[in-house]
């Protein structure tokens, strides 16, 4: 299985709602990532988990809260979002973060969740 | 710092035309280089990669060669199809324990029948 799955595919939420995005991989990868992608732009890194621990938070507002319950699963909890948070949210995974082994860095992306905040 | 510069799009070609999308990079050491493709409404798919100088990555008729001397990783295809219409991202992963991808701005390709 070389797939990263994401649910839901589409999500519409109000600014007072709480929702969650889910990402799953069964490739045995130990690093997982959340990216945000606005239209006609490259993905922007948000969070990186390595061995289920948060390694990097790219100064993301606290209204985004990541969680990694186990090595296969990554969640992104959303609360009190703003309309400008509307974007495609992509999950990715890689074998690890060991930059000395280049293949470890190869990231596999999911199809994304299209989020609209009203 | 590390950076990737990608040619501006959109690129519009007729079916069976030759494609080149330029990508140059700045990095210390020997980064890994990648081309990803994003079809409308989808996530990114790895198209090809190269991990050391003079490596040639290839997939689905696309090719790119890691040129250390010109710090380039240009994407080429000899004969494009309408189904190749997508956005193409060049990316690098810097060595030495760094996990972050540095993406180019993306190049939109439109192939006309």
| Span of the ends, CA to CA of chain A | 36 Å
CA-based shape of chain A: globular
Radius of gyration from the alpha-carbon trace of chain A, in angstroms: 14 Å
- Give the oligomeric state: heterodimer
User: How would you characterize the largest beta sheet of chain B?
Assistant: 6 strands, mixed
Characterization of the model:
- The complex is a heterodimer of chains A (118) and B (113).
- With 118 residues, chain A is mostly beta strands.
- Chain A contains no helices and 11 strands.
- Chain A has strands at 4-7, 10-13, 18-25, 31-37, 44-50, 53-57, 64-70, 73-79, 87-94, 108-109, 113-117.
- In chain A, strands 2, 4, 5, 6, 9, 10 and 11 form a 7-stranded mixed sheet that branches.
- In chain A, strand 5 and strand 6 (53-57) form a beta hairpin.
- The radius of gyration of chain A is 14 Å and the shape is globular.
- Chain B is mostly beta strands and 113 residues long.
- In chain B, 0% of the residues lie in helices and 50% in strands.
- Chain B has strands at residues 3-6, 11-14, 19-21, 23-26, 32-38, 44-50, 56-59, 62-65, 75-77, 86-93, 101-103, 107-112.
- In chain B, strands 2, 5, 6, 10, 11 and 12 form a 6-stranded mixed sheet that branches.
- In chain B, a hairpin with a 5-residue loop joins strand 5 and strand 6 (44-50).
- The A-B interface holds A 4, 6, 31, 40-43, 45, 48, 50, 55-56, 88, 90, 92, 94, 97-100, 102-103, 105-112, 114 and B 32, 34, 36, 41-46, 49, 51-52, 89, 93-101, 103-106, 108.
Task: Give a topology summary.
The complex is a heterodimer of chains A (118) and B (113).
Chain A (H helix, E strand, L loop, with lengths): L3 E4 L2 E4 L4 E8 L5 E7 L6 E7 L2 E5 L6 E7 L2 E7 L7 E8 L13 E2 L3 E5 L1
Parallel strand pairs in A: 2-11
Antiparallel strand pairs in A: 1-3, 3-8, 4-5, 4-9, 5-6, 7-8, 9-10, 9-11
Chain B lengths: L2 E4 L4 E4 L4 E3 L1 E4 L5 E7 L5 E7 L5 E4 L2 E4 L9 E3 L8 E8 L7 E3 L3 E6 L1
Parallel strand pairs in B: 2-12
Antiparallel strand pairs in B: 1-4, 3-9, 5-6, 5-10, 7-8, 8-9, 10-11, 10-12
């Amino acid at each position: 299985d070389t797939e990263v799955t994401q649910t839901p595919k589409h999500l519409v939420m109000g600014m007072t709602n709480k929702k969650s995005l889910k990402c799953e991989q069964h490739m045995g990868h130990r690093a997982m990532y959340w990216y945000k992608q606005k239209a006609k732009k490259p993905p922007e890194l948000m969070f990186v988990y390595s061995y289920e621990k948060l390694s990097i938070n790219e100064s993301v507002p606290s209204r985004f809260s990541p969680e990694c319950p186990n090595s296969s699963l990554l969640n992104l909890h959303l609360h009190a979002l703003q309309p400008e948070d509307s974007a495609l949210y992509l999950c990715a995974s890689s074998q690890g973060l060991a930059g000395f082994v280049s293949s470890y860095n190869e990231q596999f992306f999911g199809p994304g969740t299209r989020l609209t905040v009203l | 710092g590390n950076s990737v510069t990608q040619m501006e799009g959109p690129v519009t070609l007729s079916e069976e035309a030759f494609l080149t999308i330029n990508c140059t990079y700045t990095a210390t050491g020997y980064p890994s280089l990648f081309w990803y493709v994003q079809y409308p409404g989808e996530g990114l798919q790895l198209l090809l990669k190269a991990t050391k100088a003079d490596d040639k990555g290839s997939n689905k008729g696309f090719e790119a060669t890691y040129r250390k001397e010109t710090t380039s990783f240009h994407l080429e295809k000899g004969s494009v199809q309408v189904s190749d219409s997508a956005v193409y991202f060049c990316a690098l992963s810097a060595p030495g324990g760094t996990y972050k991808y540095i993406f180019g701005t993306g190049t939109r390709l439109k192939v006309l029948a």
